[in-house]
Amino acid sequence: TDTEISRLIGADYFNGSVLPCDNETSPGNWMVYCSGRLLQAVMAVKLYPDSKTFVDQPMKANLTGEVIISEFNHRFPGPIEKISKEEVADFVNEFFDKEGLELDVCELPDWIPRPSSISQIQDPTYQAFAQRLHFIWIQLCRKMKPEVKTDQERFSLLYVPHQFIIPGGRFREFYYWDAYWIIRGLLGSQLYSTARNMIRNFAYIIDKHGFIPNGGRVYYLRRSQPPFFAPMVYDYYMATQDVQFVNDMIPAIEKEYQFWSKRRSVNVTVEDVMNETLHMFQYRTEAQTPRPESFREDVLSAENFEGRKRKQFFKDIGSAAESGWDFSSRWFKDGGNLSSIETTNIVPVDLNAFLCYNMNIMQFFYQLTGNPIKHMEWSTRLRNFRDAFTKVFYVPARKGWYDYNLRAKTHNTDFFPSNAAPLFAQCYDPMNSQLAVDVYNQMETSGAFAMPGGVPTSLHKNTHQQWDYPNGWSPLNHMIIEGLRKSINPTLQQKAFILAKKWLETNVMTFNASNAMWEKYDVKEPDAKLATGGEYEVQAGFGWTNGAALDLILTYSDRLKYSGPLLQSLISDTTSSSDPPSTTPITSSSTYFGFSHSFLLPCTIIVALLL
């Protein structure tokens, strides 16, 4: 509407100048993809339903950002509100190619049609399901076209040297914490080279940028995501026993840790006898502007803010995106509305647990590779941090770990799966099994385990955010299950199995109904309903959902027994070891449950890749 357009162009969202995507001095491509009048014009006229579409489009050959911006300013010197949607569309079509064309499908170098790991699954339904998930890796494999390396300024895509697995749908590049569960699944599929190449890509990115961004685009270079690089290397080592690879990756793990320590740390004063000030970590992007891939959404959400408050709102929005939970009542001051977001006032229990896990992995790696001095250094750091972690996050009266709010000087004791992150990361004394039991009991009492489809992301209703009730996400369900499984308490290990079975049945039933895996599910529904909420339609693919499901099936391969409705079609579709299961060809206009997606390849392409 005209009112929306005026809000989108009526304020200086770039602090008076062009905002770079990173800290480099060369303008490169960020003047197109991160800021400026062209980006504002595209978003003001709502050229595409999804804001991400434009910032994913490559510039046409022999063009640069400087040339395009100069031409745009020459053609449209006047106010942005005077430019029509047709004029913007004509300009974009003249100077940009279609999104996604800078990537090619690829062959998996280590492809095994029927891995022995899957053959060992006892239940026929779960074996058939795992086999179908295994073939999805073919559909999600991507590699960079040569011009992305030789002409990088034409692309928003960040170049990496090796092929990788994408999440799927609109997420057509690599993503950071998604890759952890993707790699878990690849290891279960015995695709060790593919997993190793994904890890090597991240090492390349750390070396180039000093950290791993949210995803593989220049517009993500202002924020990271939960730090799972060290756990990726650890899981790869556990699957392969490749000590040399660990040794090769240690410098990158150290460098990434320095990013979090120097650019995402915060001091927390614990009000106890000592009044200690402890060094913790936060999600806290440096950007104070709209996210380029969600520019329109962010600006319209900020309509009631001005000046510093508007900049802080954008900073809190970006910081929540850095957490991976974009968005959730977990970050809202009032527990319900995005306008009350205060991510940078919160010291998150999960981020600190993950970095505690990083420390534990590093002390193990240095022992493994024969460096006693560094082993001692990281062991001491781990021991001290575990003590500090308990002081900051553990609430004895509520028998659990909870986010700490710097403004309110109190904890948020509502249920969120992030409260279980210390179990997953083992950032507690594992001998204290009663502590783990207490944490489980608190979550069970809250009603978090009562849903038929899995564990919800919160119990806050009617926020219409995708990281809230009733949506369940694979990484969070997997993390809770793994945290309980790692406990030395046999009762909790059994509880983990029960939760895994519930989550997997949701995955199986939805796959049987739609022939697709999805990024999230509505866990309050027993009949596998897709999730809703957030800034975009639910996406199919889906990398981390596949990986988490495969990992859980293989973890419990000797115990799982499918107890849902008969799924004979799923079993019968699993054909001989040399051919993939039948898959309905899906184009960009095809839909399941009313949601469009374009990640699947036609069967003919899959067969060609196998030959």
TrEMBL record:
Organism phylogeny: Eukaryota, Metazoa, Ecdysozoa, Nematoda, Chromadorea
Highest taxon of source: Eukaryota
PANTHER family, alphabetized: TREHALASE (PTHR23403)
InterPro entries, per database record: 6-hairpin_glycosidase_sf, 6hp_glycosidase-like_sf, Glyco_hydro_37, Glyco_hydro_37_CS
Catalytic activity: alpha,alpha-trehalose + H2O = alpha-D-glucose + beta-D-glucose
This protein's name: Trehalase
Molecular functions (GO terms): alpha,alpha-trehalase activity
Record keywords: Glycosidase, Hydrolase
Organism in which the protein naturally occurs: Caenorhabditis japonica
